[in-house]
Amino acid sequence: MSQAGKDYAGTLSIMKGEALRCRKDILGFRNCCKDSGWGLDIGLAQCDDQEKKLIEAQKAKATHYVGTFCSKKSFFGACLTKSMSYCGFGGSLGRIINEAGRSQIGKGWGSAKTPDCSGFTVEQFQQLDLSNVDFSEFYKDKMDALTSPNADSTASRIQDSINNMYRQSSQGSGI
Predict the structure, then answer these.
(1) CB burial of residue 54 (10 Å; 0-12, 13-18, 19+)
(2) Of the four, 34, 43, 87, 151, which is 20 to 30 A from 100 by CA?
(3) Which one-letter DSSP state was computed for residue 25?
(4) How far apart are CA 83 and CA 10, in angstroms?
(5) Residues near 138 by Cβ (< 8 Å), separated by ≥ 6?
(6) Model confidence at 9: pLDDT above 60
(7) Considering the entire predicted model, what is its pTM?
(8) Is residue 172 part of a domain?
(9) For the chain, how many structural domains are there in total?
């Protein structure tokens, strides 16, 4: 491999994620991890764009929970706001491979305050045994997204097509 190829392979990151956080205030005032809370309901609190992005990634099953930490304390030291950290991936496949692959090579997720959402280097990815990865959740989601054709509508479309061909052939023959 050329030197340029070696340099690139050393910096290439496969299945890289993004560190995402959400806040959860005491007494249910704001819970941007679930897009709820009475403060949000009455317009006194808001979730930021990153928190909204996290909610969408959670719906897509593309996040891995890393941990929770106190991100805002009162003057007396009581925790007022907890932040939950996640690694968000481009889709559920990225999350599944990261969860299985990291355990295979002993790569951790970092801490709640500093999550490690880095991807795999080429060398690390080559060490993964993908035959030991459970892809059933990914397959199920893809199969659920497929819709089987409705027999009645298929029969109706075939009948319409036959009728159209019959009309066209009868018009062309002068009948």
Answers:
(1) buried
(2) 34
(3) E
(4) 33
(5) 92, 93, 96
(6) no
(7) 0.72
(8) no
(9) 1
